[in-house]
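Field reference: sequence -> structure
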Amino acid sequence: MEHPGFKTLPTHIAMIMDGNGRWAKKRLLPRTAGHKVGLDTFVEMVDACSDLGIPYMTVYAFSSENWNREKTEVDALMSLMESGIRRYTPEMHRKNIRLHLMGDLSRFPEKERTSLLACEEELSQHTGMTLSICLSYGGRQEILHAVNELLAEGKKEVTAEELEQHLYSAGLPDPDLIIRTSGEYRISNFLLWQSAYAEYYFTDVYWPDFKKEELYKALSSFETRKRRFGK
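Structure field:
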């Protein structure tokens, strides 16, 4: 399907990739099967957004709360995310995509953390789309992390601009459009500071089934929004 020629595209699009487990359960498959198909969807979305010329894309891949899942699932996710990003790195090179990791990677196993950081460094000089992947990420934790850094600097009063410089997203514009799949209508601790004036698009489609046609529906909806930013 060709994209319909959008007149207005978001500068920064963010996605809450939800529903992998339920997609697998519906098909009587293990949850890990849903995560594997979800990784394919992730790659398709990165390619689609890059091809459309969207400058910034952020995905919620693993939350700080996800550590509470069964250890077998967490271990499988760690391995899948690391191997998937590593395999996709040559394609990101070809597309001139910069990789930016957001979150507390200190909680990751050393092998996976080292590999992910190496991929980030390898792509750090690219000037095309910036792909931010939120790993071991929580919006509240991000704000606390920024506050504690400012306190360590001796700050007793800060401006919004100073706080933003200490967020994981420092240097990135706020998201214009946030998409959440799988029929859930909540933020789930994602980009709490940055999403103050974001437009939201919710769909019942599970993430593994969120293909280009579904992305285009979201972008078409975004085109109809009248953004006032409180004015």
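Note: The first strand starts at residue 12 and ends at 16.
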